TrEMBL record:
InterPro entries: Carn_acyl_trans, CAT-like_dom_sf, Cho/carn_acyl_trans, Cho/carn_acyl_trans_2, CPT_N. Residues 1-47 form the Carnitine O-palmitoyltransferase N-terminal domain. The gene is LOC114845556. It is found in: Mitochondrion outer membrane. It comes from Betta splendens. The active site is at H472. This is carnitine O-palmitoyltransferase. Its EC number is 2.3.1.21. GO terms for molecular function: carnitine O-palmitoyltransferase activity. Pathway: Lipid metabolism; fatty acid beta-oxidation. Gene3D superfamilies: 6.10.250.1760, Chloramphenicol acetyltransferase-like domain, Choline/Carnitine o-acyltransferase, domain 2. PROSITE patterns: ACYLTRANSF_C_1, ACYLTRANSF_C_2. It is an enzyme of class 2 (transferase). Keywords: Acyltransferase, Fatty acid metabolism, Lipid metabolism, Membrane, Mitochondrion, Transferase, Transmembrane, Transmembrane helix, Transport. One of its GO terms (biological process) is long-chain fatty acid transport.
């Protein structure tokens, strides 16, 4: 128990001579430095709040306005048109203050009010400017005069050197579409999925809804748009994520992979040392708001509020609904290894441990022979199973004593780390199967060796590979992807390793050892752990995964065909699904709505009348010219739907909110009920590369992530995630369930590959499909 003794700042003993007080200088120093670090963070937070609060102006501009007003006063002119004199009249009379001092004070007060008015005006102007979205619908590369003027004005009113949250107060609210427009677009979206009889029935349901309930439900949403900054996000977080009572593992959580072709070091502890250090460097930048806001077209800001709960955050189970708990700071992480949980402090004497020191501490955990406590080894299965049993077990067995202290330690940690004894990545004689195993390991692991409630968990494998598992309620995948890109780049290109593969730097061997968490798990709780593990294991075993890098061509060749790469891939997915199932299905593609304050996602319904017409023509043997014309119409329609979703003109979030209001009011709508119960048999998402400048795709093309993926949304459907990397690579992650006889991830992967080649052959007749290649890494790339 040496760790416990080191944590005691003082000891006292009662003797016949009196009380013998012994102070620990080291512990008191730690307390002092920890307090100093905390106060520094508060000061930085306060400073950033002031800077963000007055943006797009700057605090120094206040002094400029004051000096300007005072200067004009000394020239015997009154820029306030008598307001300064009015303020002076109403100042409290003080005999110690001369008339001149009162005049100066009045001028300062007037200057401050004028400055605040200017800030309000600039922010209002910027908000109105950012509400203009016509630029998104213009042909790429051809900007109208109106848009050019708009871009110039946005840059003028945007100020200089914005912090991460500087634009938050200037972002427009998400607009509320009319019920008429939403229903019209909905009926158009389901037309290719229904025969005439079904479509006629749905049309009647929609008409009945519009003539009865719609106006009442819409009125409540209008009221919410006036009161809340976003009429969707809070309900989306609560009802889609937090109120789900099934397992979040597989069903909600998602994952991100390591580099595809290289492993920077084969030493597990060293890889953990560098990347954990990089995570905390990112958190430091996040706390200081030094991360640049994401700008579209280098001018249009996106909402950054999802970054606020990235670290020190955990999902807390409840019997009715879960909650997301966020803490301001945490100076440690929790590490899981071979059934044991360790608390690892990453700050010593107020400074962040170096990568080499973190490696040293991780190696201590790997070498620690201590056995798990009774019931500790598979405790994490509680977070993988159903939510209600976990909520009840948490309240009954973890609400007091040593269990509460240890659980608090996990939940309050900056993030969670698993040291896995398996080896993963693209390796061996069967690289295809190894990638599939890698994906399943990151998605669910052994069902008890991850803490699925943490905002994100990082897994380090025995051979140096790593990956991340993200909880979905607090933020969407692009936010975690931003963190992951920074960590991968910092790990490999900035921190690096020595010749032996260890982290660089020296080690302070006097560092206190990582502290093993203690548990007292009763038999009844062990039974619940076992039950949760049974549920989670059945879910994990049912997941079929296939990951493959498509290297035959990428977005470079697609763009030469004058087609959007995303639309090209979506049309390939429609073609692949039709060839496999002989029909079309409701297709979900995630689009972001971060152009608006607190925006998250909207659905792009990729299966359209145009896409189905194209697929039928191609499969029906129509002439190539006809197919090309239909393909262009389908891809343009997809781009239009995507842009409408991004600019607040989507379908599904509006219908979802109308449904929530109907439930609050206790009224039933057959139309809304049917719409919300339709299964998404093809759920897709693109993982964009947001920080391409961090990677050198020309000189180091092997340093690319394989992207990430998620589990299937429907029991009889597919989940497809794809990542477009550089000009010549697209990575696909396909998931489905073994229990469905109609789905097979590998067969669908074959169909996707064939569809991609067929579309390229159609658009570029001179294109020839390359000979079948093994899914191994290229010869010119080195697996370090």
């Amino acid at each position: 128990m040496a760790e416990a003794h080191q944590a005691v700042a003082f000891q006292f003993t009662v003797t016949p001579e009196g009380i013998d007080l012994q102070l620990s200088h080291q512990a008191l120093t730690e307390i002092y430095l920890s307090g100093m670090r905390s106060w520094k963070k508060r000061i930085v937070r306060l400073k950033n709040s002031v800077i963000t609060g007055v943006y797009p102006a700057s605090p120094s501009s206040w002094l400029f306005v004051v000096i300007a007003i005072l200067a004009t006063m000394y020239t015997r002119s009154d820029p306030s048109m008598g307001l300064i004199a009015k303020i002076q009249e109403h100042l409290p009379v003080s005999q110690s203050m001369s008339t001149q001092c009162q005049a100066v004070l009045s001028a300062v007060l007037f200057s401050t009010m004028l400055w605040l008015l200017l800030i309000f005006t600039m922010r209002l102007c910027l908000k109105q400017l950012l509400s203009y979205h016509r630029w998104m619908f213009e042909q790429h590369g051809k900007m109208s005069t109106t848009t050019k003027i708009w871009v110039a004005l946005v840059r003028i009113f945007s100020g200089r050197k914005p912090l991460l949250y500087s634009y938050q107060g200037s972002l427009p609210n998400l607009p509320l579409p009319t019920v008429k427009d939403t229903v019209k677009r909905y009926l158009e979206s389901v037309r290719p999925l229904m025969d005439d009889v079904e479509y006629e029935r749905m049309t009647k349901l929609a008409a009945e809804f519009q003539s009865s309930l719609s106006n009442r439900l819409q009125w409540y949403l209008k009221l919410k748009t006036l009161w809340a900054s976003n009429y969707v996000s809070d309900w989306w977080e609560e009802y889609v994520y937090l109120r789900g009572r099934g397992p979040i593992m597989v069903n909600s959580n998602y994952y991100g992979m390591d580099f595809l072709y290289v492993t920077p070091t084969p030493i597990q502890a060293a890889r953990a040392g560098n990347s954990i250090h990089a995570f905390f460097l990112y958190r430091r930048k996040l706390n200081k708001e030094e991360i640049k806001p994401w700008l579209l077209r280098s001018a249009v800001p996106c909402c950054s509020y999802q970054f606020e709960r990235m670290f020190n955050t955990c999902r807390i189970p409840g019997t009715v609904t879960d909650t997301v708990q966020h803490w301001q700071d945490s100076d440690y992480i929790v590490v899981y290894h071979r059934g044991r949980y360790f608390r690892l402090r990453v700050y010593q004497a107020g400074r962040l441990l170096s990568p080499r020191e973190i490696e040293f501490q991780i190696q201590r955990i790997l070498d620690d022979p201590v056995l798990p406590c009774q019931g500790e080894a598979k405790l994490g299965a509680l977070t993988a199973g159903d939510r209600i049993p976990w909520a009840k077990a948490r309240a009954k067995y973890f609400s007091s004593g040593v269990n509460k202290r240890s659980l608090d330690c996990i939940e309050r940690a900056a993030f969670f780390v698993t040291l896995d004894d398996d080896e993963q990545g693209m390796m061996g004689d069967d690289p295809v199967a190894s990638l599939d195993r890698y994906a399943k390991s990151l998605l669910h692991g052994k069902c008890y060796d991850r803490w699925f409630d943490k905002s994100f968990s990082v897994v380090y494998y025995k051979n140096g590979k790593n990956g991340v598992n993200g909880e979905h309620s607090w933020a969407d995948a692009p936010v975690v992807a931003h963190l992951w890109e920074y960590t991968l780049a910092t790990d490999s290109f900035h921190l690096g390793y020595n010749a032996e593969g260890h982290c660089k730097g020296e080690v302070d061997s006097s560092l206190p050892r990582p502290q093993k968490l203690a548990w007292e798990i009763p038999k009844e709780c062990e039974e619940q752990i076992s039950q949760s593990l049974t549920v989670a294991q059945a879910l994990a075993d049912d997941v079929d995964f296939h990951v493959f890098p498509f290297r035959d061509f990428g977005k470079g060749k697609v763009k030469k065909c004058r087609v959007s790469p995303d639309a090209f891939i979506q049309m390939a997915l429609q073609l692949a699904y039709y060839r496999e199932r002989g029909t079309f299905c409701l297709t979900y593609e995630a689009s972001m709505t971060r152009l608006f304050r607190e925006g998250r996602t909207e659905t792009v319904r990729s299966c359209t009348n145009e896409s189905s017409a194209f697929v039928r023509a191609l499969e029906g043997g129509e002439a190539a010219d006809v197919c090309r014309r239909l393909f262009n119409a389908a891809s343009e329609k997809h781009q239009l739907l995507y842009r409408m979703a991004m600019t607040g003109g989507g379908i599904d979030r509006h219908l979802f909110c109308l449904y929530v209001v109907s439930k609050y009011l206790g009224v039933e709508s057959p139309f809304l009920k049917e719409v919300l119960s339709e299964p998404w048999r093809l759920s897709t998402s693109q993982t964009p590369i947001q920080q391409g400048e961090l990677f050198d795709m020309v000189n180091h093309p092997e340093y690319i992530s394989c992207g990430g993926g998620f589990g299937p949304v429907a029991d009889d459907g597919y989940g497809v995630s794809y990542c477009i990397l550089g000009e010549n690579l697209i990575n696909f992650h396909i998931s489905c369930k073994h229990s469905c006889p109609d789905t097979d991830a590998h067969k669908f992967g074959v169909q996707i590959r064939k569809a991609l080649h067929d579309l390229m052959q159609l658009l570029s007749p001179n294109y020839k499909e390359p000979k079948k290649m093994e899914a191994t890494k290229p010869e010119d790339k080195k697996d370090l």
